[in-house]
Each structure stands twice: as structure tokens, then as C-alpha cells.
Amino acid sequence: MERYYSEVLSYIARSVGCKDKAQNIVQEAYTRILSYKTSNPKRDNTQERALFFKAAKNIVIDQYRKNQTVAEPDDFELVAPSYYEPEAKLASQQQLALLNRSIDSLPLKTKQAFVLYKFKNLSQPQIAEQMGISVSMVEKHLATAMLACRNALQKQ
């Protein structure tokens, strides 16, 4: 075992980046193997080198895992999205009601064009064809409707 000490030490030193830490790890691995050998005297000694490397590597892994901090559930602040907050939900409902009133107050053709565009997802040429008006007239209706909605929201 002693003949592998410097080889395992240089390997572990490269792994941990510190020769002092590597010496402590290799010493602990050596102690563990000697302890195991004394409690199991009939153990096959043909793989001592591999056992030494494996024991030292396992200690490095154990120390790494021990040093990793795991956030406890208490460390996290449980915050619901803002749209779940009662004030935000109420404000959204009030805005929606305001927009509905604003749309309802539009002239019939303007309202129809706006509903077809925003809620039915029709293109302007499709709306013009369905309503029997020109595309430029559809654009004017949509501009009027959007301006009315924006003004209603700004007044709020």
C-alpha cells in the first residue's frame, strides 16, 4: 500500500486542487483500508492499488456532497403570481368591464368590425367582404374602436 501513496496523492491533489487537502484525504483512505484489512484478514490483496484509488476518490466525492448546500423549503419565499392577488384580479375585472362598456357604446358598424377583427380573428379584407364595405373603411372602424378603448383606459 505504501508504494501507491505518492501516486494516489498526486491524483487526488489534481482533483481537489490543494496538496494539503489531498494529503488529508489520502491519509484517511489509507486508514480506512488498513482498518478494513485488519477486520477482514482473508481479503484478497491483489487489487490494493485500485482499492486505494477508489477509497480516496470516494472520500473526495463525500466531502464534495457534504459541502454542497441544499436550500431548505423554508428558504424559499412562496409568492403567488400578481394576477392571483385580489387587488390585481379586481382591477383586471374592472378594466374588462370598462372595455366592454366602451365597445358596447361604439356605433354598430364600428363595433361589428372590431369584434370580427379582435375576437373572430378575421383579416381586414375578410371583414370588408363580410360587411360589404371597403378595406379602408374597415381600417377606419378599427382605428375608431381602438382609440375609444385606449381613451376609456386612460380616463380610468
From TrEMBL:
<comment type="similarity">
    <text>Belongs to the sigma-70 factor family. ECF subfamily.</text>
</comment>
<dbReference type="InterPro" id="IPR039425">
    <property type="entry name" value="RNA_pol_sigma-70-like"/>
</dbReference>
<keyword id="KW-0804">Transcription</keyword>
<dbReference type="InterPro" id="IPR013324">
    <property type="entry name" value="RNA_pol_sigma_r3/r4-like"/>
</dbReference>
<dbReference type="InterPro" id="IPR013325">
    <property type="entry name" value="RNA_pol_sigma_r2"/>
</dbReference>
<feature type="domain" description="RNA polymerase sigma factor 70 region 4 type 2">
    <location>
        <begin position="99"/>
        <end position="149"/>
    </location>
</feature>
<dbReference type="InterPro" id="IPR013249">
    <property type="entry name" value="RNA_pol_sigma70_r4_t2"/>
</dbReference>
<protein>
    <submittedName>
        <fullName>RNA polymerase sigma-70 factor, ECF subfamily</fullName>
    </submittedName>
</protein>
<dbReference type="InterPro" id="IPR014284">
    <property type="entry name" value="RNA_pol_sigma-70_dom"/>
</dbReference>
<dbReference type="InterPro" id="IPR036388">
    <property type="entry name" value="WH-like_DNA-bd_sf"/>
</dbReference>
<keyword id="KW-0731">Sigma factor</keyword>
<dbReference type="Pfam" id="PF08281">
    <property type="entry name" value="Sigma70_r4_2"/>
</dbReference>
<keyword id="KW-0805">Transcription regulation</keyword>
